[in-house]
TrEMBL record:
Protein name: Polyhydroxyalkanoic acid system protein (PHA_gran_rgn)
Pfam families documented for this protein: PHA_gran_rgn
InterPro entries: PHA_gran_rgn
Originating organism: Tsuneonella dongtanensis
Source organism superkingdom: Bacteria
Amino acid sequence: MRVAIPHQLDNDEVRRRMKANTASIGDSIPGGGVVTTAWPSEDRMTMDIGAMGQSLRANVDLEPGQVVLNVDLPPALAFVEPMIAGAIRSQGDKLLAPPKP
């Protein structure tokens, strides 16, 4: 699954906001979830996600004008892909929001 989230920020600001807001990613997963993030390069964040008895690995790539989340959904979750993509778009906007003081 590939979900692009457009923005009008430069990548330095996107990176800063994502790092400031990553602690809240697990809060947005229905039923709760555990999310571990890492930055193997300055334009890629990886996420290990545990939720609903499933383990997922995702990449978030910073591109000019958008961040792109790529995740391989297991067959058990493929039928809910549209719902997951919508939730990612909604939460992606929150991830790119200015950090709260």
